[in-house]
Write a structure and sequence with these properties.
single chain; 93 residues; alpha+beta; 3-stranded mixed β-sheet; elongated
Length: 93
């Protein structure tokens, strides 16, 4: 008795196209930042230091991990407050 008499198997190979080239702009959300806006855009960690973040800040540490990846993102966003208020201020993340 062969396997074909018990079960029929069909294998297909289909390619899936990507909906976009990347994952968009990552956003790091925290409870508080040293400025009043809900969201700021950064391209590097030095900008965060200039804006008053300390290197031991959880937001800075998260950004450090993000920028340490290879390949790394060119820009990222830091946001403060609850996600609804952040989304109202900037929904592009």
């Amino acid at each position: 008795m062969s396997l074909d008499s018990i079960v029929e198997v069909t294998i297909t190979n289909e390619s899936v196209s990507m909906s976009q080239a990347g994952f968009g702009v990552p956003l790091i959300l925290g409870e508080s930042a040293p400025w009043k806006e809900k969201v700021r855009i950064y391209s590097d960690l030095s900008g965060m230091l200039k804006d008053g973040f300390q290197t031991d800040s959880p937001l800075y540490q998260s950004a450090l991990k993000l920028k340490s990846q290879s390949p790394c993102v060119t820009i990222f966003k830091i946001a403060q407050g609850d996600l609804n208020a952040v989304y109202e201020a900037d929904s592009n993340f």
